[in-house]
Amino acid sequence: MLALILTALVALIHLYIVWLEMAAWTTPRGRHVFGTTAEFAEASKVLAANQGLYNGFLATALIWALIAGLQGAGFQLGLYGLICVAVAGLYGAATVSRRILVVQTVPAAAALIALLAGW
């Protein structure tokens, strides 16, 4: 049950990131979250949307795992999705902002531990 809740939380976080990167990148909210200027946001909005699409794929994998149930194929898909999120978060923390470690990697690692422990 804990794995289900934490995996759903990670999926929701990524749906929010999708919205920020694909729809709100150039808005005051998007610029505030990512610490960008209006000029940078406008110049990089296509790249941000592409990045958002990839975050959407991560969210989709996790949602699919939740729908399938976290056993069998759903377990494997959840495992794959959570590992991908954790690795992406580690890379983002190393290259962009350490804040990504808290926002992305820690929730994914907690969900992964819960999933592997059968909680």
Structural class: mainly alpha
Q: Largest beta sheet, briefly? A: none
Termini, distance in Å?
Answer: 6 Å
State the domain count: 1
* Regions with little confidence, pLDDT below 50 for 5+ residues: none
What's the total helix number? 5
- The total beta strand count reads 0
Radius of gyration using CA atoms only = 15 Å
Helix fraction by DSSP (H/I, runs of at least 4): over 70%
Shape: elongated
* Strand residues, percent: under 5%
What series of H and E elements makes up the topology?
HHHHH
Please state the average pLDDT score: 97
What would you note in describing this structure?
- The structure is a single chain.
- This protein is an all-alpha fold and 119 residues long.
- Helices cover 86% and strands 0% of the residues.
- It has helices at residues 2-22, 28-34, 38-68, 72-95, 99-117.
- The longest helix has 31 residues, at 38-68.
- The protein starts with a helix and ends with a helix.
- The mean pLDDT is 97.
Concise overview:
The chain has 119 residues and is an all-alpha fold.
What would the keywords be for this entry?
mainly alpha, 5 helices, 119 residues, 86% helix
